[in-house]
């Protein structure tokens, strides 16, 4: 299978923009797709902020490399244009199964036959989506952590139908884009990272909703007792409260539904979405 040179990202939210910029920083030609000009305008602002972060935090970025990465980023709201020359398409649209399936059905008719598709879904298995792609042998999951310039892992997880060539090509891409590939050989909801992280976040949400402690106390307890740099509600702010809401609102259990309502009424309806908007559980 040919090496990956041209990358397309579907969705320029908090993590989608990070994935796009990280790849451009490491020399890939990147096309970032979103649904309309307003979303793309927001994406441009995110890319400029990421360039500033890389200049201050990433070795070698202050010598012009951060700005150079911006020249390798192209934005479009035309899905056909976005997919036309892609070697790899990474989907980072909201965590809604029917929406993702619809996106893949549209994409399958537009992308070249050689193109590998990858989902960055945090909660859905690639098997949930593979039939919508029209190319299950060239489809798998590629899951990133937030703040990928620092928490630079990429979890690679295929299905029983993913070809070894596609899997290896995506592992190589991850490594060449400055990430540490985590090769997962069996489908597992939550991969490795979220299998460890989600129970922590759910436990924190439960403590809050039960009135046991406030977010600051829960976070302080976790940081002091474990030595972790961030508590669960700080992590929620980094992930984005809209993402947390989408996941919770589509979960069937009563606790998740209650947390979704809490997020909507106290934060989302007031434009407080976490780090991306300057305020969530904390102010930034």
Give an account of the 3D structure:
The protein is of the alpha/beta class. It has 2 domains: 6-184, Rossmann fold (3-Layer(aba) Sandwich); 194-277, N-(1-d-carboxylethyl)-l-norvaline Dehydrogenase, domain 2 (Orthogonal Bundle), CATH 1.10.1040. It has 12 helices and 8 strands. It has an 8-stranded mixed beta sheet. Helix 8 (193-209) crosses helix 10 (232-239). The model has no long low-confidence stretch (mean pLDDT 96).
Task: Describe, in short, the structure shown.
The chain has 284 residues and is α/β, with parallel strands linked by helices. The protein has helices at 14-25, 37-57, 65-71, 79-83, 97-108, 130-133, 164-176, 193-209, 215-226, 232-239, 241-249, 254-266, and strands at 6-10, 29-33, 73-76, 88-91, 116-119, 139-144, 153-158, 180-184.
Sheet with the most strands, sense and barrel status: 8 strands, mixed
Order of helices and strands: EHEHHEHEHEHEEHEHHHHH
The count of helical stretches stands at 12
Residue-averaged pLDDT: 96
- Span between termini: 45 Å
Q: Outline the low-pLDDT stretches.
A: none
Share of β-strand residues: 5-15%
In total, how many domains does the architecture comprise?
A: 2
The helix content is 40-55%
């Amino acid at each position: 299978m040919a090496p990956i040179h041209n990358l397309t990202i579907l969705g320029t939210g908090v993590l989608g923009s990070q994935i796009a910029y990280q790849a451009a920083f490491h020399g890939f030609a990147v096309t970032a797709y979103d649904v309309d000009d307003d979303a793309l305008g927001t994406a441009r602002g995110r890319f400029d902020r990421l360039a500033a972060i890389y200049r201050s935090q990433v070795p070698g970025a202050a010598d012009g490399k951060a700005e150079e990465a911006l020249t390798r980023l192209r934005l479009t709201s035309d899905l056909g244009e976005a997919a036309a020359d892609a070697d790899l398409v990474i989907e980072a649209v909201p965590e809604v199964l029917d929406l993702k399936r619809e996106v893949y059905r549209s994409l399958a008719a537009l992308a070249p036959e050689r193109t590998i598709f990858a989902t960055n879904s945090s909660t859905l298995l690639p098997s949930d989506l593979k039939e919508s792609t029209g190319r299950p042998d060239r489809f798998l999951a590629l899951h990133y952590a937030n703040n990928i310039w620092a928490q630079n892992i990429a979890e690679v997880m295929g299905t029983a139908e993913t070809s070894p060539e596609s899997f290896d090509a995506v592992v190589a891409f991850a490594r060449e884009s400055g990430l540490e590939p985590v090769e997962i050989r069996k489908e597992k909801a939550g991969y490795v990272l979220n299998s460890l992280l989600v129970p922590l976040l759910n436990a924190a949400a439960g403590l809050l909703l039960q009135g046991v402690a406030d977010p600051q106390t829960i976070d302080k307890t976790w940081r002091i007792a474990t030595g972790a740099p961030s508590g669960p509600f700080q992590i929620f702010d980094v992930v984005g409260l809209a993402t947390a809401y989408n996941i919770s609102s589509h979960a069937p259990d009563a606790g998740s539904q209650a947390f979704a309502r809490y997020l909507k009424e106290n934060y989302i309806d007031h434009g407080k979405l976490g780090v991306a908007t300057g305020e969530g559980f904390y102010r930034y």
